[in-house]
Amino acid sequence: MENLKQEESTGRLIIVAYRLPFKIIREDDQVQLFQNSGGLVSAVLSLVGDKVGSAFSSTKKIQWIGFSENSREELEGQSLANEQFEAHPVFIPEDVNENYYEGFCNNLIWPLCHYFPSLALFDDAYFDAYKTANQLFFDKLDEIIRPGDVVWVQDYQLMLLPNMIREKYPVNKVGFFFHIPFPSFELFRMLPVPWRKAVIDGILGADVVGFHTNDYVEYFLKAARLVSGHGNKLHYINMSNRIVKVDSFPISIDFDKFDNAYDDPKVESARNEARQSLKEKIIFSVDRLDYSKGIRHRLYGYQRFLETYPEWHEKVSFVMVVVPSRDTIEQYQQMKSDIDQTVGKINADFGNIYWQPIIYQYRSMPYHELVGMYTASDVALITPVRDGMNLVCKEYVASRKDRKGVLILSEMAGAAAELGEALIINPLDRQDIADAIKQAFDMPEEEQTKRMDAMRERISEYDVFAWTNDFFTQMTMLEQEHERLRQVFLTNKGIDGIRRAYEASSNRILFFDYDGTLAPIVPDPAKAIISEDVKKLILEIAKRDTVIIISGRDRYFLDNLFVDFPVHIIAEHGALIKSKGTGKWELNESYEENWKESIRPIMELYAKRCPGAFVEEKETALAWHYRTADDKEYATRRAQELLWQLKNYIQPELNLQVIDGNKVVEVKKTAFNKGTAARAFVENGDYDFVLAIGDDTTDEDMFEALPDTSYTIKIGDDLSAARNHIRSQEEVFHFLNFMVSSVGE
Ligand code: GDG
After folding, report:
1. Atom of ligand 1 nearest to the CA of 321
2. Which residue among 287, 293, 389, 397 has the greatest number of ligand 1 atoms within 8 angstroms of its CB, and so is best to mutate?
3. Which residues lie with the beta carbon below 6 Å from any ligand 1 atom?
């Protein structure tokens, strides 16, 4: 019974990917699943079973939802399971699949993400089909999902799915991984506005969003900001009631499988056969037929090599394997015939009856033959013009148990960020490829080994199992972060607890933010005035306790409001302080005025282009306000662009901070913030009761900086480091009034 309970409480892993990783074969009314040996399949398999150190371990079968080429009739009533997986086929009507998979996915997203905008086709029917198909995947998930299940959505075919899941199942954990390059914003913005917004919002339904490289992460973060207004703090996007982690997880391979294959007798004999029948030096490449793989560029580079270095004629064989893919599409047929012609021309121009410079195969290879070629070749020539990661280069390195061979790798492959010891080339530069081949042929064995060792070590340490584990560790860590930031709204009991603590203490300090805390947020910032009731209450509290008004406002505004109040005032986020009773403002000693000249013109330009927005110059900060803008939506977009530009423009040595405030973009010195200012006060007194209330992002510094025993209260339901929340600014008065009610004058 106990066991059963535990079983129920740990969820299952549900993978949703475009394709099911099985061939489903029906024979005599029996269905059999033939599992593909793809990387993702073995990676997720490592997560089941009670493995020590696994970030997600479940003893239950993995659920896999994916498109099936078999018809519904064929599979009706059959149990689709083997020992490790349960398969849940999604049936997509042919006309929908045509516009969805061939259309939106392969005719639009694929070329756009691989920097071929001229090949991108835009068709309204594509997007409609994309939505329909994502819904079909969701419907299938909806049938099987249970509380506690973790869903991992794969790739660009399913970008709307994470948010569909989030809306109906807010508690289930959802991960999303994008396997192809996420493009720079200039390309992404080619999508019509509603499409790009649907894509970004769809992906942001996940808890953890993964890409192969930091560049793709950065491009995605920029798109999220500019398209949907979601800013990020490092790798986190705060969606108010939850956070999303966006990070790079460079996919890898099963290193041991390729490493061990070296000694497999079938591989050994394939290797020997290749070495015996080919020339002295062997170059090898293998990829799917696709314009992103740079197959023609590779041929041109090889042609230039033969032109520039004739001494290598008759001594080299280039084995180029192209695996058939999408070749029913006209564009791919055209590409294939271009390749055929170029290969024919090179062989005719340079070859002779004893020597064929290129051995070209248009077919897929069995695994042992593939590894046989990896281990027989002196050079792997991998030249994509764009590739999310590229696994072939990692497989080549992992297969080289003999620690020999040279990898020539395009800088446009995601893998180039990890494999710095390869000879890195630009695939569009023919001479670069030619020279790299020459360098590889001349490279001494010790140098080959040195480079191979470094790459092999890296891949063996971060193999596909580490990749999966890393992703799931992030999911778990995010849960802890959510727990830390969880909104705990004050209940009557909680409020009473604070009242009692207040009553029982004798040396108290209280920090109050101004806008949104003591005064309501109103359209015109100049008119945000504190009510008489709150004023009276603050005055009463200030008579017996240390009270600090802590705000981002300038000192004139605050002076004017709190004239004659026995309080300390902190203005401009900690830059200026007026201590109680001194009547004198002091500038924070770390402030240096050396930066405004370079930032002001940028802000002014944005203000000019956005009617109603204006720049406020404070003594120690510059603020771009857009609460007063005529067109709020337009202004919000401009604000996001301004934020992005400022964050990229500002050099670290300027020590400036860009704040995405409440309808204001602000730049100030980093040397101080509400946190440093508040902490200085607390450390200078022996307080037995500390309370801070605020509503803004800048108040987070204060919540984080105060001692753990403090009462920190956030107004509203945005995630916060504060320990408690109250719902609205209007409740502040009632809360404070009740807190002090049992303490006399
Ligand atoms: C997408 C992204 C990203 C190929 N031909 C044969 C064969 N293969 C295997 C290779 C390798 C895989 O297929 C190809 O993987 P790539 O990563 O190189 O390329 P894509 O298919 O475009 O994959 C890519 C990847 O997703 C993962 O996130 O790296 O950037 O485009 O494993 O070995 N295997 C056998 N015979 C063949 O003829 N046995």
Report:
1. 38
2. 389
3. 179-180, 251, 286, 288, 323, 364-365, 367, 370, 387-392, 395
Mean pLDDT, range 710-734, rounded to an integer? 92
Q: Find the 238 Cα to ligand 1 centroid distance in Å.
A: 35
Q: What is the DSSP letter of 443?
A: -
End-to-end CA distance of the chain: 61
Which atom of ligand 1 has the smallest separation from the CA of 364? 38
The residue contributing the CA closest to ligand 1 atom 10 is 392
Coil/strand/helix, residue 169: coil
Of all residues in the chain, what percent carry a pLDDT higher than 90?
A: 72
Q: What spacing in Å lies between the alpha carbon of 703 and ligand 1's midpoint?
A: 48
Choice among 513, 554, 695, 701 that is catalytic:
513
CB 107 within 8 A of CB 122: no
Residue written as tokens 């042609």? 303
> Rounded CA gap, 370 and 239, in Å?
46
Residue 452 identity: M
Q: Give the separation between CA 98 and CA 434, rounded to whole angstroms.
A: 41
pLDDT 10s digits, 2-30: 443 344 447 899 999 999 988 777 777 77
Q: Distance from the CA of 390 to the center of ligand 1, in angstroms?
A: 7
pLDDT averaged over every residue in the chain: 91
Give 656 Cα–ligand 1 centroid separation in angstroms.
44
What is the Cα–Cα distance from 666 to 658, expressed in whole angstroms? Answer: 6
**Ligand 1: residue whose CA is nearest its atom 28:** 179
* Closest by Cα among 499, 534, 565, 567 to 739: 499
Q: Which amino acid is at 317?
A: S
Q: For residue 56, how many C-alpha atoms fall within 13 Å in the half-sphere facing its CB?
A: 33
Annotated catalytic residue 263: no
- Give the tens place of pLDDT for each residue, 414-437: 999 999 999 999 999 999 999 999
Quote the pTM value.
0.84
d(CA 621, CA 552): 9
Helices (runs of H) and strands (runs of E) counted in the chain: 27, 29
The whole-number average pLDDT for the span 685-703 is 94
Mean pLDDT of 287-302: 97
Question: Could you tell which of 105, 253, 375, 392 is best to mutate to test the pocket of ligand 1, judged by most ligand atoms within 8 Å of the CB?
Answer: 392
One-letter-per-residue 3-state SS of 528-596: CCCCHHHHHHHHHHHHHCEEEEECCCCHHHHHHHCCCCCCEEEEHHHCEEECCCCCCEEECCCCCCCCH
Calpha distance 71→89 (Å, rounded): 9
- How many angstroms does the Cα of residue 20 sit away from the middle of ligand 1? 16
Is pLDDT of 589 > 70? yes
**DSSP code string of 634-675:** HHHHHHHHHHHHHHHHS-GGG-EEEEE-SSEEEEEETT--HH
Query: Which pLDDT value is given to residue 51?
Result: 60
Atom of ligand 1 nearest to the CA of 181: 30
Residue 471 contacts residue 212 (beta carbons within 8 Å): no
> Considering only CA atoms, which residue is closest to atom 15 of ligand 1?
391
